[in-house]
Amino acid sequence: MEQLQTGDRVNCNYGGTLFNGTYITDRDGKAVIKLDSGYNIGVGRETCRFLERPVPVRRPEISAVQDDSLPCLSIISTGGTIASRIDYRTGAVTSQFDAGDILRAIPGLSGIARYRTTQLYTILSENMTPAIWQELATAVYKEINDGATGVMVTHGTDTMTFSSAAVSFMVDTPVPVIFVGSQRSADRPSSDNTMNALCSATAAVSPLGEVAVVMHESTSDDRCAIHRATRVRKMHTSRRDAFQSIGIPPLGYVDYPSLDVNLSPEAVKRGSCEPAIRPALDESCRLLYFYPGMPPSALPDAGTLHGLVLAGTGLGHVSTEWIPFLKSLADEGTVIMMTSQCLNGRVCDRVYDTGRDLLKIGVIEGADTLPEVALVKLMWVLGNEKDPDKQRLLLSSSLIGECTRRSRHGL
Fold this sequence. Notes:
It is built from 8 helices and 23 strands. By secondary structure, the chain is of the alpha/beta class. The N and C termini lie far apart (about 60 Å).
């Protein structure tokens, strides 16, 4: 039998059915084959029959597709599924593309803009940290100052809402800053990377003037939604339409394949501010989801905690047993902010006794701010403002649309 090498085309038998695919590696006594459908299977090595060894194709250089008459976009790559290849050692998807690879893989981008690319990181989004958020914000600010018409940030979807919210607080932007990812990698026929990238580039040259997330609006390839970065959440582990605006409608849509952009009146428009950056963050903050029976001992020690976001039940509640412990934290200087696990609706601690007790000890109502956005906001406020009264004012105000004065009917 032909000695198989990674990338060889093979025919294999699985469950009595013959399949064509690409040999990846041997693992756990099986040959790992990537089927033409994009899925991996493990089969007995003896069932594999060598078909051919494709000749490597050299990819064209990026400069060959740049059009200097088009607006200049910056792509900052951090990794994620949109920028992934197959790791032939494990057969898994791993983040290995740089921004230039994305342009080569999606030629249609060249008709929307000309690009300069920065590979800031090549990591999966679960490995993001506040320190990387700061580096990302600095890179975005530099690109804006250097004249970019817009900025695209490729990012893994799992923690994209944290990073996009962080950049929203740290950077005042007069141009679109678009976070984009992919739920399914490029090797799968159902991949959303091409459509998401094209719609994101289109949004990045649009009249928008704020940080947004652009992803599939439905399971069909018909349009992408433009979500405000501080009002969006990933609501499904794998669906292509996983991202949804919470509490407000999307800022607009990009139709596909026409790439027509429709922005809502509530979208911040291009040129509405001067670029500025305030990247300081206080990382001594925590987010804690309360559950019934959760002991007060789950609270962090006050000595190491500057800020705490609670994701409480309903209108923003925790057990009455917690009140004295939270009071001790507040008395020692910990800033406590209350949000709700319900996502839709808003915190109101004036209805029940528990809520009133929370207000008495100084807990700040987070209105309808999403818990993860509240954490980022708290880190940013404490990092940039040291006066306690001003901190409370900032935390109870809408700074960049992260909370609303009144919840919409039905949202």
